Amino acid sequence: LSLVSYPRTPCNPRNPRFRTQRKYEIPKLTLIVTKTLHTLFAFYLRQTEIQQKVIESFNGRKRAKHLLECAKRAVEIAIEQDEQAAMDWLDFVNMPNSHLHGIFK
Fold it and tell me: In which band, very low, low, confident or very high, does the pLDDT at 34 lie, cut at 50, 70 and 90?
């Protein structure tokens, strides 16, 4: 029995449970914050990855449409003129200095 009486509330520093409760509150909070930040960062990385895939998909679709139009035009040229003219036209379209090159990369 103690001669000094004090209230046994969790917030009273003289309460023996106060110290043990304090020890575990900060690490739990740190763990919660760390897990939350980790989750948010993982979500951000996943969103960035999805964004890149969507951009790649749109660029691939543009390029496929462009290549299809080039092939159609090459067939038209081959029918109207000859195969060599069609091949020359395809080479011109795919040249780095051509005005059509690099638009649909």
Answer: confident
Minimal CA–CA distance to 62: which of 99, 98, 93, 102? 102
Burial call 85-96: b when 16+ CB within 10 Å, e when fewer = ebeebbeebeee
Query: Could you tell me which residue, 72 or 22, shows the higher pLDDT?
Result: 72
Using an 8 Å Cβ cutoff, are 77 and 100 in contact?
A: no
CB 14 within 8 A of CB 6: yes
Report d(CA 46, CA 52) in Å as an integer: 10
- In this predicted structure, the answer to whether residue 24 has a pLDDT above a threshold of 70 is no
77 in Cβ contact with 89 (< 8 Å):
yes
- Contact indicator for 52, 41 with CB cutoff of 8 Å: no
Contact 93, 100 (CB under 8 A): yes
| 33 close to 40: Cβ distance less than 8 angstroms | no
CA–CA–CA angle 94, 100, 104 (5° rounding):
85
